[in-house]
């Protein structure tokens, strides 16, 4: 189980609080920082639309905010590494869901009902000897 932390920013601005959480999916790991703001999402220093080109992946990332009704209340900065674009989008969604849970514990019920707090544990199956992929065998030839 990943450890989530609550961290305050620079001492100049004492009202600014960041909520940090980690999310995982396949081989991707995402660390999300939520702070109050106007709803901008930055992934690895790029805007969400640039980093995730497909609309489906952007919908996956925004799902926790739409479920809880916090669409334009938080600025999100995410560092994500490993895996492909689909796994990274799932990891970002998981991290944002966990960070929202730190902000308000009453959001647990809608997040849990939509399966956003559960870590999707499906991994790629290993390749077996005599197979081309995990289960794909060479074509059988009778003669």
Q: Would you mind describing this structure in some detail?
A:
With 143 residues, the protein is of the alpha+beta class. The chain has a single domain (5-113), classed as Ribosomal Protein S5, domain 2. 30% of the residues lie in helices and 24% in strands. The protein is built from four helices and six strands. The protein has helices spanning 48-51, 55-68, 85-103, 108-113, and strands at residues 5-8, 17-25, 28-36, 41-43, 46-47, 74-81. Strands 1-2-3-6-4-5 form a six-stranded mixed β-sheet. A hairpin with an 8-residue loop joins strand 1 (5-8) and strand 2. Helix 2 (55-68) runs parallel beside helix 3 (85-103). The termini are far apart.
Q: Characteristics of this structure?
A:
about 140 residues; alpha+beta; Ribosomal Protein S5, domain 2; about 30% helix
Question: What is the secondary structure topology, with strand pairs?
Answer:
Blueprint: E1 5-8, E2 17-25, E3 28-36, E4 41-43, E5 46-47, H1 48-51, H2 55-68, E6 74-81, H3 85-103, H4 108-113
Parallel strand pairs: 4-6
Antiparallel strand pairs: 1-2, 2-3, 3-6, 4-5
């Amino acid at each position: 189980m990943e450890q989530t932390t609550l961290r305050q920013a620079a001492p100049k601005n004492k009202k600014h609080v960041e909520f940090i959480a980690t999310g995982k999916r396949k081989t991707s790991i995402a660390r999300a920082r939520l702070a109050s703001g106007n709803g901008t999402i930055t992934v690895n220093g790029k805007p969400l639309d640039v980093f995730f080109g497909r609309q489906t992946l952007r919908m996956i990332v925004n799902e926790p905010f739409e479920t809880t009704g916090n669409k334009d209340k938080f600025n999100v900065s995410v560092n994500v590494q490993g895996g492909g674009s689909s796994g990274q989008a799932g990891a970002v969604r998981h991290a944002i869901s966990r960070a929202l849970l730190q902000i308000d514990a009453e959001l647990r019920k809608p997040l849990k009902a939509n399966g956003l707090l559960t870590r999707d544990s499906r991994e790629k199956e290993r390749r077996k000897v005599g197979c081309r992929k995990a289960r794909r065998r060479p074509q059988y030839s009778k003669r």
